[in-house]
Amino acid sequence: MLKHILRSLTGGPVTEAAPVPGADTLADLGARVAARSRARLGRSLSIRQVDAGSCNGCELEIHALNNPLYDLERFGIRFVASPRHADVLLVTGPVTKNMADALCRTWDATPDPKWVVACGACAIDGGVFAGSYACVGPVEAVLPVDLRIPGCPPRPVELLSGLLALLETTAAERPR
Amino acid sequence: MYGEEPLFGLLGRIGRPVDGHRPWPRFVTDRVGWRLLIEHLGGNGWSLLGLWGEAAAVHTALREDLSGDVAVVSLPCPDRRFPSLSGVRPAAIRLERMAQDLFGLVAERAVAGQSIDDRPWLDHGKWGTRHPLAAEPVITTAPGPQEQPPYRFLPAEGPGLHQIPVGPVHAGIIEPGHFRFTANGETVVRLEERLGYVHKGVEGLMRGKTPADAARIVARLSGDSTVAHAIAFARAVEAALGIEPPPRAVWLRALMAELERVANHLGDIGAICNDAAFAFMLAEMGQLREVVLRAADACFGHRLMMDRVVPGGVTPDIAESGRGRLTDLTAELRRRFAPLVAIYDGKASLNDRTVSTGIVSTGLVQRFGAGGYVGRASGRGLDARRSPGYAPYTDLDFEVPVLTEGDVNARVWIRIREVEQSLSLIDQILRRMPGVPRGPDGIVPPPVLPRLPERGGEGMALVESFRGEIMTWVRLAGDGTIDRCHPRDPSWFQWPLLEAAIEGNIVADFPLCNKSFNGSYSGQDL
Ligand code: SF4
Question: Which of B4, B263, B311, B324 has the smallest number of Cβ neighbours within 10 A?
Fold first, then answer.
């Protein structure tokens, strides 16, 4: 174990360079978020992930963001345990009818200003589950959505550039 | 004694075989035969592989573990009532509740003194319809939250007991489900799970779809087992049609399945250690998992290898550079994994949390027919790759690790050993996988059948996912579309045992126990 730590200390970080925020996600966000709260959140953005019916594929890739290679926290983005500490709800899944209530209650518990990010094909348009008796449909059928990150599941880099776009826009909105 | 009559013997006596059900037979019986079957199940050790409904019938799949014989038994029930198997196979309880929710099939008491759990399971009263897959679904208006009758949790009463409700939204990045703990101080007296929150209506969506379209749905039943579920579905469809995929596809499927197994086990080992407050392991295992996913991406164009396995074969073929990439991958993993295993083994403070925590007895895993690391950590060594076995595993060398302690530590060690076995399997597959001969036009055909025949049939498949054995049953209509498909995730038989594992442990150890099971919510919620 000591050897391992020593090697980690001398070997330099394994973390990789950050991706450039995707141009279209930025544009998508810009228009919507501008109309929202101007309150300053600071460089730090707290995310509460809500699985509203996903297949767990999206969760796997969101988890990957926390591994040392992507290391999300270096951008000041953290996943928090309670919606009461969150600025952003990162929602996955086609919003099952059995989860719709819980999703709304999580949103209600999140203090303003808040943003909703729809993560993955299911959250954006229901994906392969669209039209089921058991699904409400896309997240926007339940909550106002500020940013969409496509993919099934989105790759960690895609998630990262989406979240970076969100972060930079919220930071730019800071009142002086 | 009952147990001595072989599976096929009894079924031949109580039912008649159906034509065109492959590769194992299906017998149709009547109520008298079904009751006789229940009587025999009370005296023998046949494993329940699944139980699923249809508009006017109920089916169960059974396996005689010693001989490896597998069969499906069907009971037509036009009155939508059937004698319950749950008195002799407790793993059937939630499956019967599902059949009630989806089809309105009512399980009746079959064994003296048996009480039937008739509470809804997947149906939370929100669908706007009852029995959505029945011949005539009942349209309801979903009641508002105030009118919703509360779910009846089983009572646990006594001085000093208090309840802790958790979920459906949990603190971490995980799937939703509700856990109701009854505790005495720190000690858990009872845990009751309530699942179904991510029910997406998968079986309803598959109906009427072509096998190719349905495969995309089944690949999203549980994202972490997307390859294994896709293989099980593809094999069931191929069995129903009586066709064989190209030999190279069979090997590529196994290659993907083993990559998936390694990636998930690495992630699990890290996550379990993290829940024992040893974050170092999560960081290290997270890197190894990432290395596997990137290799999968480079070889197959998708990090989780979704939609690569299709009925009729695999598409597309592995990338040109794939073989070299994966040879390097197994070498790198061997080099980096072994020192981490040594660290796990040598950390007394970590072992203090995992050893003797969350014990599941051998008796319980046998009664519930639990497979995967949950079964194998508690002495039940079945593995679908071995028994009944399927290609190409029948040609490959591997061991199925088995331990008997049944605690969190044992479930970690099963995963460690399986990672090692899978690395060896990947090497063997890379060495022995058949190539595809170039056609006369100089083009290498992809390892997939050009088109599936459009005809009916019934098939089933047993496939070992990283989590355990998947059973998928399918019936194709005359035009080759899906008439009924039931994919049974291994989680069905593992979730109930988590309730037993946590009993007598402290509440703070629940995340650790839960992670060591890593049941799929989406897979069992369907
Ligand atoms: S978008 Fe894809 S990976 Fe994400 S939850 Fe939906 S099906 Fe699963």
Answer: B4
The best mutation among A49, A50, A55 to test binding of ligand 1, ranked by most ligand atoms within 8 Å of the C-beta, falls on A55
Q: Where are the beta strands (DSSP E) in B242-324?
A: 309-310, 313-314
Backbone angles phi, psi at B189, to 5 degrees: -90, -40
Residue A55: which of B127, B199, B220 has the nearest Cβ? Answer: B220
ipTM of model = 0.91
Which homologous superfamily does the CATH classification assign to the domain defined by B202-306+321-434+448-524?
A: Cytochrome-c3 Hydrogenase, chain B (1.10.645.10)
At B330, list the tokens. 């197994």
Q: What digits encode the pLDDT tens for the residues B144-194?
A: 555 567 888 888 888 889 888 888 988 888 899 999 999 998 999 999 999
CA of A150 to the centre of ligand 1 (A): 10
Per-residue pLDDT for A43 more than 80?
Answer: no
Q: pLDDT below 70 — which residues of chain B? A: 1-4, 142-148, 436-439
CA of B199 to the centre of ligand 1 (A): 14
Q: Find the B368 Cα to ligand 1 centroid distance in Å.
A: 30
pLDDT at position B518, please?
95
What ranges in B7-103 are assigned the alpha helix state H? 7-14, 31-41, 92-103
> Of B124, B224, B287, which is closest to A60 when you measure between CB atoms?
B224
Asked if A138 is an interface residue toward chain B (Cβ–Cβ < 8 A), one would say no
Question: Under CATH, which architecture does the B7-139 domain have?
Answer: 2-Layer Sandwich (3.30)
